[in-house]
Amino acid sequence: MAALALARALNLGLRKALEANPKVVIMGEDVGKLGGVFRVTDGLQKDFGEDRVMDTPLAESGIVGTAIGMALRGWRPVCEIQFDGFVFPAYDQIVNQLAKLHYRSGGRLRVPLVIRIPFGGGIGAVEHHSESPEALFAHIPGLKVVACSNAADAYTMIQQAVACDDPVIFFEPKRRYWERGDVDLDIPLEDAFPLHAARVVREGRDATLLAYGPSVRLALDAAAAAAEDGRELEVIDIRSLSPLDWETVHHSVRRTGRCVVIHEAPVFVGYGAELAARVTEQCFYSLEAPVLRVGGFSIPYPPSRLEEHYLPDVERVLDAVDRVFAY
Amino acid sequence: MTVDSLHHTVAPAEAGPADPTLVQLLTPEGQRRGHPDFPLEIADDDVRALYRDMVALRRFDVEATTLQRQGELGIWAQVLGQEAAQIGSARALRPTDMVFPTYREHGVAWCRGIPPEDILQLFRGINFGGWDPAAYHVAPYTIVIGAHALHAVGYAMALQREPGNDSIAIAYFGDGATSEGDVNEAFVFAASYRAPVIFFVQNNQWAISVPEIRQSPIPLYQRAAGFGFPGVRVDGNDVLACLAVTRAAAAHVRAGNGPYLIEAFTYRMGAHTTSDDPTRYRLAAEVEAWKLRDPIERVKAYLSRSGAADADFFTDVDTEAERLAERVRAACVTMPDPGPLTMFDHVYAAGSAMLDAEKAAYAEYLASFEEA
Ligand SMILES: Cc1ncc(C[n+]2csc(CCOP(=O)(O)OP(=O)(O)O)c2C)c(N)n1
Which residue of A has its CA nearest to B366? Predict the structure, then answer.
């Protein structure tokens, strides 16, 4: 066990992946000498060389498009998108090509490709550096979409994503990059918690909080605060946005009868809309209250001096919890 | 030139004074030179004004960097080293020409009359650009690399359709940006519609940690030929050459001859932004070598040597710059944060009932704390 920052855990996970399979390559802007703007790829080029850790030209469509080509020839590229807002020049390649090649080729082509995207706000950045575009990817059939929330998961999930034969959009909670957690560096990948499973990260009987990525920490903080008032909230880290591990969610909400969904993205047509609709459809007779969502407003991400208002905080989560108990 | 087929590493082009393709009118030592294609008649007064601009810009840039270090700005993109490229080119434009900048064009903004404190608002995080684009003919700073090159072309295409209007558009971007699809598509549109647009590339040698050679194995100005328009490489640390070349390009473009690419060969003396650490990827010796080509020092040398300015002039300019810095600092530290409900404004020109409801609900939520 080692206490590692989430970014460092990703770094070590990527290192393992490069060691495990000589076909794994990392490509992106500034991933080499600089080690990425968040240092997630720090030292990898030094140890694995410029052929395997490639500083690319500044062109996201180029990065993803050429990675697709390499994947078609048996390589396993891991692309880094520098910030969430810069994935869109590559969006056409991701949505129209990456997501559909397996399907279009009747299963004859495989595109084992990982696209790492630091996402979410809370770091006081300028515009286009704090986006939450996960729903735009989760909506696209053919893509697998995951979000890690802590160092231990980051370490294993990135390795599992690289080993996966389908394209994986890998969201990293950038404001949690520096948060430390215990990581078992020797865990065999077969023994690691499955990539596409949700996890109960705190047990409780009174209500279920659903969260992923940066919001998991928030949900846990809210649950701790609620416990002081005698409310036992269960917290589920969704981990895999697509496919969704519905069983874990279902099981919990049927028991608790109350559900609050938390994410940073705008609530309107957000990922939480899917969760809320499914919970309502399939747990209707167990529900004591409507499913509530806590998230961003229907506005572009605001200037950084206002992000504390945009981002859900413990107070807003507890406010929603109060409301699901008021029914 | 040796090329390794996989890594494609070649020795970086040495565009020093000896490079015949580099347009230079003032040597690093401050000697005036002529150029057959880009002659420049300029009064001493105007050279002094360019000097004054550059000193003010540098002082502003230093102050903003300090403000960032003190936590008053979230981040700052320094322009240090690129003063001549920006001041020279921007002073060649007419007020009605439309500028499409990136996030580093503080010198261009200065020449357009935008108060420097307004530029800081974006970096302080209180809005996304504190000036009226129509009033200054400067679009908001663009952070997504290369996106605005297309906007400049479209704007130019619109100008082209206005009878009697010979205004032009100019897009500023970096060497890294030339790799983006958007920039290449901008080149295609501009060439095919003969749009009145200048592409002004500040080749400051680095796109964060990635050197120019990783973006292009050939000199950037030569790209233009492949798209079908002229491209010129100018000494980006020579304010006179930048002025002359941009004037010539503007005349060419204004006359309906289609787009023009200027590559200002310069150097980013500072970090990419205040969050960056350039010691991880570039050598101190390179920075030292470029110091000898400082854009301000050479004008100073020229002005003193030719007797066009005396010690009093230089002292005055410095005092003025100092006053500017004080004013900017005072404005920055007293800038209030916007009220939380302002974040709901301007999402739609026509407003939206749904958004109004969200805003009202949030107002009520905030008010509940005051009552408590
Ligand atoms: C589409 C996009 N991708 C990535 C980034 C992150 N980024 C910001 S600046 C930069 C390098 C830009 O280099 P260059 O175009 O040479 O301009 P310079 O900053 O050197 O002036 C990168 C990669 C971005 N802002 N936009």
Answer: A309
